[in-house]
Design brief:
Aspartate Aminotransferase, domain 2, 41% helix, alpha/beta, homotetramer, 13 strands, globular
């Protein structure tokens, strides 16, 4: 069945499978001490344009968020996030389970505002009782956000400057980073990301890999003995090659960016056909997640021929639904969808 | 280079790669809600001979140990293990990081004795001060052990009976379970395992998969909301199919047992050639890990042509070294090794 | 200097000191296994009118909140509280440090509404993705609240009924419980509290004790091995008698209620004199904490003769300030204050 | 009934109660921001002879051990202790509950040996797999030990030098420190303790206080925002004066040392009378805990007239029992005991 349910419902990009098959019987050491991982690390560092970046590989987004946040915060610190941020809502309390509070500021279509973060920190230090409160120890943003929206370069610069002023790290959740970078509306490059934040990750799971996220500590600031922390959290793969080979492939011949671009192109096609049919949009998203308003009747009808996700109820008769494109979405898929809707 | 370094230094069994390629573009829901995972679950349940077993998939051994132990213990309970047990020594304190003490009893070539466990629990309850101590809440054993040794059926029965008497669960770490079951010396079947313990796992990472462990809660005793606990621990794969497809393949046409058998046959070959050359053995292992005593000189010489692991120093001139066979070891590999040693 | 800074800035009620002196050289077993603790337990149980209540003693409010919440929640559960709740803001992330998220609903002068709690839980279960979210596992309210306000009996009944419908416990933080029960506006008795919630505590620290909170599990529902959990959290006093003697005294001859009444009477006096002088009130509090609006100028002037707390800024020229009465406040204190303001 | 059960079965030294009564109605700020706490801090710093020492007050030993250890270790580090150490056995897993493994070395009458610690650390770093293991991050010793024994100055110097060589802190649990310092066999002063370790505590609970331990970070090395960490752990007393007044009193006119000396003198009396009656000793203790071997018959007989603790079974007919003296034990108590045995 035609599926726009999410950007992780097919396997891996064929070149990744090809690389896995080609290298399969080559013996190499475990735990990421292999040549593929070394190559992937080097290529990502080069793409970021930072010699002082340190790159590590983990398997999934929640795992990455939990480990990065916990390893960079002190016990008395929490992490600031938009109220709608993934760590705040949809990670089953992973950050809190590692001992840290998520301190929320308002979300505006998934984005937080530097001014709100500034206010939170200012009030914290102004308050005589702040020693009884959780210290703001990091700012977390997702780019693209959970609603497919993007920060502009100047917004990122403002947040970055704020974090540097307060001497707390800025962490960018890039689970869908490729789709953000390749958006027609984006004025942000991978190098900008690497220069503006202290740690971020290049999402693989949602951008063509079977699994995997590449964590980049941007300036020789990987937490001490991070390897052991990863092991302790049960996140160390014995066959680290699985992650190395995938990211080595994704960062060879621009593959990561090309397949991200495909998702964006198909999303633009998708927007066009929905607009042509007169649908209204719930959010104005410049990336691969598109949110459309649809009547319950129409949803029931469509659901028989295509998979998509019901996002939230708008009113008694309508819901917002989400259609995702991905590296794997084809023009044929879009045409088939156009006929159905 | 010829490698006997470990049983996870090549990729996956070709049939697994073939299945990954074949199913790659088939869209399916995430988080394990896919048909491959359902099939894998059903096949493993059938192989265990228990209708009431619940099967879940995780990515690696330490992750599995940490999550299973934490989700089955109360905050005031610890887990009993051999002093040499993997959770006690080589998991970077993962169990303690989740809040639980590992209560150690002596290890005998990696195995614990029911009588020692009995003594520990008896003394605990006899001690007037036991309310100030960690409650023994589970018994953990690895089978095969970290030294390649095996429990006999009657030993497992004794430990199982003890656990049932004290009403605490028995957990079997089966990271190398296949190699144990197919050993010439084993009198234990998968069904025995499933009947004697409360939870165990069928290791995939070390037995032909890219990654993955199949956790079996043997009698409708999966911890409530285990899915959410897995998510909270950052252990939930978005593309759960990666685990489902692999285990579906491993449990089709007896593949898991056949490839385990290959490792055992090659280990017997390996023992034979080392014996023929007059080497002494550090441990008497009936499984795929073989521990040989070797002079430092010989080690240096061999290391130029073959990879293996230095296990521990025996005396000033000799070390114990470990040679592992696996599903991927061929007769050619053994012959090549025979020529070298 | 005259002080209305807080309700814990003097020592203990003289009868408590007298009891500590009188019993001082009497040897008794440690850890709460003493006759004074047994007596205190029995008297509190009687005052609650519940034979099936279990009473335990801890030293402070944050400690009690952290231990009670952690011991009653599963790892995948969080606790619902008003956004202004003490556990949410002023306990330095103690609940999160024990692994649980605080799920917030709006606070109305410190109180939460049953309808908001109901909405939060309903949406949680309605959401298809709820397995990726923190389960609502308890409702926490403070009575009186952090703003001195009180729930009415019917409000408590509504919240209690809601919790029972969803089968999650209701926990009442009674750090200032006495001041709530003795308020002129209260229609709630200690027995009501005990009947409507699953666990609550009778605050001692702020109501005449040197330290100590009496936790009441209302219906044979103390978490298993709670003693060991308390020990593990570093909250077990070797000289448990210190808590036992204090609560034995407080619950002898109605002392707890009498001294609470004194605080309320003095608070009414205080309200009267502030009203007479034309001050406006920031909150309408029926208990011992009074919030008054004062100009910065006046604050500076008053601060030279009397201690009070600046609560929050109202506008450029005015702040809300807090004046607390307590068991120890005398009519003379009020008269002295009347002259100053 | 005559009691030698433990050193915390009476209340507080009369001078402490007198101070509590005298200062009772004096209002002062909470959370340790009071003049008594400031005085206590200054007096202890002076007694230690270190201007750069930072002194904090907590309520009990397990609480102190848990918080000090957790606040000084990184997440990947554990604490080295004797297998019989209090944190290893009798604190209900408090250290593990905060996420850290207790790494044990053999105990010799409660003491650890520098050479064993050196071996553990050396092997750790020699082992190629140490990144998969818990890093040794601190050494914990108790002085006196759980068996009443003492380290000599040269033993402490050796352990201290070892810790400094490996750059890990040395932590001394001084729950009974006074009894150690005043022992006839001690060649260690409070200044020695302060100079040789990085953090230690002066036990109050077992040496005349109602509760309380004074933690000394010896060289400007208190963990950042330790106040907030204490709050987060539920260990911050609102009426911090309770601890301040007690330690202010204990460190006025040498009281702490005098009352410790009394316990030692009475322990010597006790040893003498047991020796005269022909009893054998289980341990040779130079402090206030005395371990005597006694037949079951004798134990049953004595238990009717005096309280003491059964420590452990020696053989079928005999146990080791513990008799404790304290600051409160009188010559009359000893004489009464002499008549009974």
């Amino acid at each position: 069945m035609l599926s726009f349910e999410c950007d992780y419902n097919t396997g891996a990009h064929p070149r990744i499978l090809e690389a896995l098959c080609r290298t399969n019987m080559e013996p190499c050491s475990g735990y990421g001490n292999d040549i593929f991982t070394a190559n992937a690390r080097e290529k990502i560092r080069a793409a970021c344009g930072r010699e002082d970046a340190d790159v590590r590989f983990l398997t999934g987004g929640t795992q990455t968020n939990r480990i990065v946040i916990d390893s960079m915060l002190k016990n008395y610190e929490g992490v600031i996030a938009a109220a709608t941020g993934h760590i705040s809502v949809h990670e089953a309390g992973a950050v809190e389970a590692s001992g840290h509070k998520v301190l929320t500021v308002p979300g505006y279509d998934g984005k937080l505002k530097a001014s709100d973060v500034d206010a939170l920190i200012s009030v914290f230090y102004a308050d005589g009782a702040h020693e009884h409160m959780v210290y703001p120890g990091m700012v977390y943003i997702s780019h693209p956000t959970e609603y497919g929206t993007l920060y502009t370069l100047s917004e990122l610069e403002e947040i970055s400057a704020l974090c540097r002023r307060y001497e707390i790290p800025l962490f960018i959740d890039g689970a869908r980073l490729g789709y953000g970078l390749m958006s027609f509306e984006s004025d942000v490059t991978l190098q900008d990301i690497a220069n503006l934040c202290d740690v971020f990750y290049v999402g693989g799971t949602k951008v063509g890999a079977l699994c995997g996220e590449a964590v980049v500590f941007t300036h020789n600031n990987a937490p001490k003995h991070f390897f052991t922390t990863v092991k302790q959290n049960g996140a160390l793969l014995a066959k680290g090659r699985l992650l190395g080979i995938q990211f080595d492939t994704l960062f060879t011949d621009n593959l990561y960016f090309e397949i991200s671009k495909n998702a964006i192109d198909r999303a633009e096609d998708l927007k066009r056909i929905f607009k042509q049919k007169g649908y209204r949009f719930f959010k104005n998203s410049p990336t691969n997640q598109q949110f459309i308003i649809m009547s319950d009747e129409k949803i029931a009808e469509l659901a028989e021929e295509v998979r998509f996700e019901i996002w939230e109820r708008i009113d008694e008769k309508n819901c917002a639904v989400r259609f995702c494109t991905s590296w794997a979405t084809t023009k044929d898929d879009i045409e088939a969808l156009a006929e159905i809707i």
